[in-house]
Each structure stands twice: as C-alpha cells, then as structure tokens.
Write a structure and sequence with these properties.
The chain is built from 31 helices and 23 strands. It is α+β, with helices and mostly antiparallel strands and 969 residues long.
Length: 969
C-alpha cells in the first residue's frame, strides 16, 4: 500500500498524458476533416455573398394571343414549375445543400421624369423582394393588380423627390414601344436596419449639410474602412455570413434598387438620374406584351453546405467529386426542363404559355473549389505541424515523467537487483503496475475522441501512441538496471563520448534528410496527419538541441573562468555546474525548443497571413477603389470619378509588346508596357514607387519628340526599340533603368494582376502612348482616391455581382480587406494552431516542472555543501537562478530561431502565397507580442521554481540531503 500511495501521483499523471495524447492522435484525421469542412463551407458562403454560386437563365417571348388581355398571365405561376424542376435536378450527394435563392426578371430602362430631372427607370421582378415589414411607407406592388405599380427605396424617393401615389409617365427608352403610367405604391428601406444612417445619406444626396453628414458618418463608423459599405448595401464586413435583413442579398446584387445613380451634366444619355424599382410579375408580362420584347429570367442557386457535408468534399478526392457534380448539374437541369435540346438560339421550350429558350448556366464555384484545394493543402501543413508538435511535446512530457519515476525507485530496484532480481523482471513488473492507468487513459482518450462531432476516430493511430507511452517506464527501468549500468555505476562507460558524437551526427543527418524529403515531395494528399510531417518537428528539435548542447556550454565556461577571478563562489559554482550538466539537460531543452518553435511558427504564419492579405488587397485594388475596364466604358468611368468622396483619379493602362532593337534587330522579349498618369499619381499617392520613378526620370514633364520614353528592365539607357501597331512602327527610347520596387507598386496591380506575369516590363507616362489605339490595351484601370468614398454610390454604378462583362469590374479596398478578414480558412488555421499551442505549452510546463524535480536533489546537495561553508539564503537563490539561466536562454534562443526559420526550411511544402496572392511571396511578420510573452512566461516559471526550491531548502535540514555513505556525498 505504501508503494501504491507513492506511485499514485505518477499513475494519475501517466493516465492524463495517455488520455490526452490518445485523443489527439485518434481524433487527428477526423479533426482535419472537420476543420476542412468548416473552411470549405465558410469559403463557399463568402464567395456567394455577392451573387449565387450557380445562375440559370432563359429568354422568353410574350405568350401568343395575349395582346387582348395582357394582364391575364401570372408570370410568377408560370415560373414556379420551372423553379421546382431546377431544384429537383440538384444532386442528392449534396444533401440538400443546393438551394433556390431567387428568381428575377429585369426589364430594360424606360424614360420618365420627376421633379429631380429626367430619369432612366429600370423595372425588376424579384421573388426574394422584401415583404411589407420592410416598407417605411405604402406597400409592395399588388401581384394581382392590373396597373403598373412600382415600389422604390426611401433613398430613391428622396433623391428623385417622389411621393406616395405619384403617377410617373413611362416612355420608350432601352425598352421600345412602351407607353404606360406607373403608380408609386410604396417605399422600402434598404439601409441594413439603420434609419439614422439612411437619413444622413439621403441628406448628403440632396446636398443638405454635406459636410455635417460626412462628419456624422465618420463619427458613427469610427475607423472601420468598411462602414460605408455596411450602411449603403447592408454588407457586414469581417463578420459572419448571415444577412442583417431579408433584403440584404437583393440590395447587394442590385444596388441600384437601394439608391439611384446620378449622371454627369450634359451626359450623352440625356438623363439626370438612373434608378430601379420593384414591380409585380403581371406588370412584367403586360409591358413585355406591349413592347413585343424578349426578356430573360434568371434563377439563382446557392450552394450552402453544412460542415459534415462539406467535410466529405474537402480533401482532394472530394473536391474532384464536387466539381464533377457541379459540372453535371446544369446538364441535368436542362434535360428535365426541356429535354436534350441544344441551344441554337431558338425558342423550343416553354415557360407557362411563353415560348422560351433552353437554360443557359454560369458558375464560378468550380474555380472557388480549385482555389480552396490549393490553399487547404498548405493549411493542412500548418495544422498537421501543430498537431505533430503537440504529440512530440506530450511524448517528451511522458518521458520526463517516466524518468522521474525511475529515479525515485532506483535505490529500491538496485537493492532488489542485489538480491537476485533481473532487470527484465523488474521492467515487466513496472509495466504491469502501470497497465491499469494506461488502459484507463486509453479508454478516456478514445471516449473524448468519439465525443467530437464528425467521422469516427482513427483508433489505429491512437493505440500505438498509448502503447509507446506505456513502454517508456519499463524501457527506462531496464536501461537503468541492466548489467552494464549496475557494474559501471555512475562513472561514464568506455567510448561514451564516441557514441554521443555518432548519435548527434545521426540526428543531424536524419533531420536534414527529413527536411529534404518534405521539400522534395511536399505533403501527402490523403486526409489525416502526414507521417513525414509528424516526424519533422521532433527531428528538427533534436538537431537544434544537439547543436545547443554543444554550443551553449562554451560561453558559460568562459563566464565561469571570468567569475573565478572575482570574489565569491556562487557564480563560479553555478556556471561550472550549468556547463557540466548541459548534456543532462537535453530532454528539458528539447521540450522547450519544440514548444517555443511551434508557438513562434504559428504566430509567424498568422502574422504573415494577416499582413499578406492586406498587402494583396492593396495590390488587387491599387488605390482606395479601382475600376477595371475603364477603356471599354468611358461614361461609367466619368461618373465614378464624380461620385462623392472621390478626390483624385489616375489612369493606368497596359499593352503587350514584343519590341526589337533598332540597331541590332535582336528581340527584347515579350514585355508589359505600362502607362500611368504620372503627375496625377504623384499628387494622389506621393509614396508610389512608379510615380517617383517617372518624376525622377523627367517623364512627367512636357513630351519632346515622337519616341515613347520608357524606363525598362534588362536594357541600358539610350537603347532604342521598335514595335508595330496597326501597320505603323513605333519607337521606344530607354531613358533609364526601371527600379525593382516599381514592379511591386500597388498602383500597377489592377492591370498587372489580370494578365500573366512577364519577366520584362516597360513604364511610361500615358501622354507618350497617345498614338496607340485604346482598343489595343489589354488592361485599363481607373484608380479612385479618397479617404471617405461613398461606397454605396459607387456600387450603384457598378454592382459587385454584375453579369455584364462589358460593364467592367469595380474593386473597393474596404470590401477586399473585409473579405480577407472574414476568410474562414484563416480563422480555422488560427484557432487550430492556438489550441494546439496552448496544450503544448501546458504539457511543456508540466515537463519542465518534472525536470526541475528530477534535478532538484543534485542542486540540493550542492547548496548543502555550500551551506556548510556559510552560504546564505540570498546566495542560495542566486545559485539556483544562475544554474538554470543558461539552459533557459539557450532554449529561448533555439526555439525562436527554429520557429522563425521553419517556413524557409519547409520550402515548397508551405507556400503562404497561396493564401495571400499578390505579386510576390508575403514578407514574414513574426508575432513579437506572442514571442515576448512566451519568453517572459518561461522566465517567470524559472523564478517561481527558484523561489520554491529556496523555500524548501530552508525548511530542509542538512541531514536530509547529506548522508554518510551516499555515493558522492
């Protein structure tokens, strides 16, 4: 019973370690699958915030013979059976995750007039239009009415000076042959539930107290760059995927419903405003019949997968299956709608009584799944590395626990050996004594793994871990009691130094081989931890410790020699013993190095991803906002430049050229010729590298001659190159070398990021490119600068979900940054690594405390000797501190260094650019706060240990430590 009571703390500690390590090992594959499912579901939800993932469209004509009673047809009833067919064709494997989002029909704009001026009014029927609860005044259009009833937003009401019941004459515009009168029956709110914010925006639209409204909006939104977006379109930046109100998706996809857009004075369209209104389905068919027009109905299907379903499609095989299902689904929907009829533009199908075309489809989800798969392979490396580091630290803690148990029972076991017991028998007895605790821990770990949601645990991975922990104590017991150890005693065995050198060399070779193999083949594609990736943390930690144990005693010995020349023996004794006992501290060093390296690596990855995503957003946008395709629609570009809050605009263009030398005829190589409004860019963004380079080269001044002056890579000043354009020969004159930082200037990102990366680049001012046709440029962008852009007004001109490729693309930095901050994959990586790091730190603290207990007797004997010579209490504390300090400093240095170099060591196995994008790999940004906190925490632990040991030493008599006859006393 006495032995059982003595071993009880050890058995409890062993059971807890077995339970924790078994749970981690068994739940590892399921945890990776579940985390992958969460990340995929979050990514799909985020990518479908702007528009549904799959869109179907069909053109339909007026129903034949309907001219006499145009109001008789109910388009909503005609569309409902087709909607049901599209929904029923969804693959069953998606577990009901493909849901109908909306059915919409948009009419081309009609001309009307209000007190605010001439208006181009578009009409829209939307099945997901908000109900009566969203109306601030009036009601929705009557679905059974037989007159043109329209509902508009409150912002449109105030901007166009409308009132309830007002009649608006509708005249032909983009929709021809229409003469009707519309009655305004309601005004709905589209402000995301912020009436005060809507009122401020409406006052600003009318120009009433614009400065005050601007200030109020800035005060209300604080420093969040996405606050304008949230108030204008209902989008909630950097938050969950849920909508704030039922109409949020509609306002995001149709921002012109939420607020009108203003045309510049003397616009070519002859309009002052452009707006959109909601109508009932009968209105659509009535106006269609009157105009004799062919309209298009659009069905939106949204892929909303729950975590368990998404987890089935998260690995490489599941991603291929998901892409196959998404590819086959449109064909299945077309087949059930109208049979296997090819789309040759004819009206061979029917929607109710309306002749209709077959279904056309469009989706961006295939690219989303491809991008997710590429990024998750890198994310799995980060999580697997964290799990592997946790397992390594846990096994080391178990080893320290076993060593402490062996040390406590060593005298009794040696006495049993002297009485004839065998080392093997004693080791088997220890195995039998610990078997119940290990079995209890194994069952608890499996139960904990099974309690987690998701797939069943991998028992075949948890069982070996439990067996390994169980065998540690018997193996160490046998090693301590074997014949050679009993005969040799505490003296080192022959050739021990040689064996140590061989062992250290083997560790270094294995670590180098593991890193080389991981860099060569990457990570395993299957789910679950990668065995090679799991071994690398331990190998790298062992290699680091092998180097530290050889290196850190050298300066410690030098300090000991220096202290020998000074008064006092505390520093001399403490430093001498610290240098001598360095090999014995290898296990504690390994625990600390692996833990610190894993934590620093996780902080480095998190910091690099956060900064890299912000840098990538700046590269993609180039300014506060940018309009890609400005050369295709100059009217939209002009209207964007006049939106409230836009202070400066800069044009950027790119042309693909393949010039040849004017002197030798040699090809320069395919290059990107980028033109910038240099003077405007210098004024809008003084820190721009491109603007500074153009200004320094004198390219922003008046143009001289006909040559196109350029800054070039791979060319010398004065070189002349020629290239052909529409039968003309244009000449390039190199006036300087292009600085390297210009290639990464965010102002060039909108045009450079949309084309393949080219090795060579030429930069010039846009004024030198006047001879080149606008249609020749492969990319054009208008950069918009302003600290308080009216995001809602910008989006009313260019919706984020625009299906019209000719309209161009509007990118807004606040939106891109909000998307980057709300990326669920980053949250998954950060949460998983934080959890693993926290558990590893707790295990490391346990191992360190046990290691201090293991070495406490030796330190106690040393201080006891010195106390007999008159050593005081403060000197005893200083001795403890100086003896532990070199090991702690070595562990902190080695762990931080290893954690910071891990991304470079892993190489291709961890490419963080997959997460961030941008022109180059993100610059590493370590988490300095986390690193400092870990180092400070370790220092506090050491101080606490010193204080406890000093207190215990004062209460302990010399006879409890120094005993006559003890070996070494």
């Amino acid at each position: 019973m006495r032995e059982a009571r003595v071993d009880l703390p050890f058995l409890v500690c062993l059971a807890v370690l077995v339970a924790l390590l078994t749970a981690v090992a068994a739940a590892g594959p399921a945890l990776l699958d579940r985390l992958a499912g969460r990340a995929l579901a979050s990514r799909l939800a985020q990518e479908q915030r702007a528009e549904p993932g799959i869109r179907f469209g069909a053109r339909f004509e007026p129903a034949p013979g309907q001219g006499s009673d145009a109001w008789a047809s109910d388009l909503a009833e005609d569309l409902l059976p087709v909607t049901d067919l599209i929904v029923s064709a969804a693959p069953e494997a998606l577990n009901g995750g493909l849901v109908h989002d909306s059915t919409r029909v948009a009419l081309p704009t009609l001309a009307t007039a209000t007190a605010a001026g001439k208006v181009g009014l578009g009409l829209l029927y939307a099945s997901d239009a908000p109900g009566r609860a969203s109306y601030a005044e009036g009601r929705p259009p009557d679905p059974d009415g037989e007159r043109v009833e329209i509902a508009l937003s409150t912002r449109t009401r105030d901007a166009l000076r409308l009132r309830l019941g007002q009649r608006l004459p509708l005249r032909p515009g983009a929709l021809r042959n229409v003469e009707a009168t519309a009655v305004v029956v309601g005004f709905f709110t589209a402000d995301g539930g912020d009436p005060e914010g809507a009122e401020r925006e409406e006052k600003a639209e009318r120009g009433e107290g614009a400065e005050g409204a601007e200030g109020e909006r800035a005060d209300a939104s604080g420093s969040d760059p996405g606050s304008d977006l949230a108030s204008a379109t209902g989008r909630v930046p950097a938050s969950g995927m849920g909508d704030a109100s039922p109409g949020d998706r509609l306002w995001r996809e149709q921002p012109s419903l939420a607020r009108p857009s203003r045309h510049p004075p003397r616009s070519a369209s002859g309009l002052d405003w452009e707006a959109r209104a909601l109508v009932a389905p009968r209105t659509v068919t009535a106006l269609q019949t009157q105009a004799g027009a062919t309209l298009t109905v659009t069905w939106g299907m949204r892929l909303d997968l729950d975590t368990d379903t998404a987890a089935r499609f998260a690995d490489d095989r599941g991603q291929r299956e998901l892409q196959r299902l998404l590819t086959a689904y449109p064909d299945d929907a077309r087949s059930v709608f109208c049979g296997d009829i090819a789309d040759f533009g004819g009206m061979y199908c029917e929607i109710g009584r309306h002749p209709a075309s077959t279904l056309r489809d469009g989706t961006h989800l295939l690219d989303v799944v491809t991008d997710f798969g590429r990024q998750w392979r890198q994310g799995r490396v980060v999580i697997s590395f964290a799990l592997a580091s946790l397992l390594v630290v846990g096994l080391l803690a178990a080893a320290v626990t076993a060593l402490l148990a062996v040390r406590r029972s060593l005298d009794a076991h040696r006495l049993q050996r002297a009485r004839g017991a065998s080392a093997t028998g004693l080791a088997l007895a220890r195995a039998a004594q610990t078997a119940p605790a290990v079995l209890l821990g194994l069952l608890a770990g499996i139960a904990a793994a099974r309690s987690l949601p998701g797939p069943s645990p991998a028992y075949r991975q948890g069982l070996p871990v439990a067996v390994l922990v169980w065998l540690l104590l018997p193996a160490l017991t046998w090693h301590a009691l074997r014949e050679r150890a009993v005969r040799a005693g505490p003296e080192p065995a022959p050739y021990a130094a040689g064996r140590r050198v061989v062992a250290e060399a083997a560790v270094l070779v294995l670590a180098a081989a593991g890193v080389f193999a991981l860099r060569s083949r990457g990570t395993a594609g299957e789910a679950g931890p990668d065995p090679l990736l799991a071994a690398v943390p331990a190998l790298l930690g062992l290699a680091t410790v092998a180097v530290l144990v050889r290196v850190y005693p050298l300066p410690v010995r030098l300090l000991a020699r220096w202290s020998a020349r000074r008064r006092g023996v505390v520093a001399l004794v403490a430093l001498s013993r610290a240098a001598k006992e360095a090999p014995a501290r290898a296990l504690a060093l390994l625990v600390l190095v692996v833990t610190l390296a894993g934590a620093v690596f996780g902080g480095l990855v998190a910091g690099t991803l956060a900064d890299g995503r912000r840098a990538a957003a700046a590269w993609q946008v180039g300014a506060d906002a940018s309009y890609l395709g400005a050369g295709r629609d100059s009217d939209i570009a002009e209207r964007l430049g006049q939106v409230r809050g836009v202070e400066d605009t800069v044009g950027v263009r790119q042309l693909r050229v393949d010039p040849t030398s004017a002197s030798s005829g040699n090809r320069y190589g395919v290059a990107s010729l980028v033109g910038v409004d240099g003077a405007r860019l210098r004024a809008a963004a003084p820190g721009s590298a491109a603007a500074r380079a153009l200004d320094d080269a004198g390219l922003t001044g008046p143009r001289t001659g006909e040559d196109i002056r350029v800054l070039a890579t791979g060319a010398r000043t004065g070189d002349l190159f020629t290239f052909a354009s529409h039968g003309r020969e244009l000449r390039l004159r190199v006036v300087g070398v292009l600085p390297e930082d210009v290639r990464h200037d965010p102002a060039l990102g909108p045009v450079r990021g949309t084309t393949p990366a080219r090795e060579r680049m030429l930069l010039t001012d846009n004024r030198d490119l006047a001879a080149i046709e606008a249609s020749d440029f492969e990319g054009t962008a208008l950069l918009l600068y302003g600290p308080h852009l009216d995001v809602g007004a910008l989006r009313s001109l260019v919706p984020r979900a625009s299906g019209d490729t000719a309209l161009g693309e509007l990118r807004i930095r606040s939106e891109e940054q909000a998307d980057a901050a709300a990326d669920g994959m980053i949250d998954v990586l950060r949460g998983a690594h934080t959890t693993c790091t926290a558990l590893a730190v707790l295990l490391a603290l346990l191992a360190l405390v046990l290691e201090l207990l293991l070495s406490a007797p030796a330190r106690g004997r040393t201080t006891a000797y010195l106390r007999t010579l008159g050593l005081g209490g403060r000197a005893t504390s200083g001795l403890y501190l100086l003896q532990l300090l070199p090991m702690v400093l070595a562990a902190v240095t080695g762990g931080i260094a290893l954690g910071l170099t891990l991304p470079a060591l892993l190489g291709p196995a961890l490419d963080l650019r997959e997460f961030t994008g941008g022109p180059a790999a993100p610059t590493p940004h370590p988490d300095l706060l986390l690193t400092a906190a870990l180092g400070a925490g370790l220092g506090v632990l050491v101080l606490a240990a010193v204080g406890v040991e000093t207190w215990i030493g004062r209460r302990r008599g010399l006879g409890a430590v120094l005993r006559l006859g003890r070996n070494g006393d």
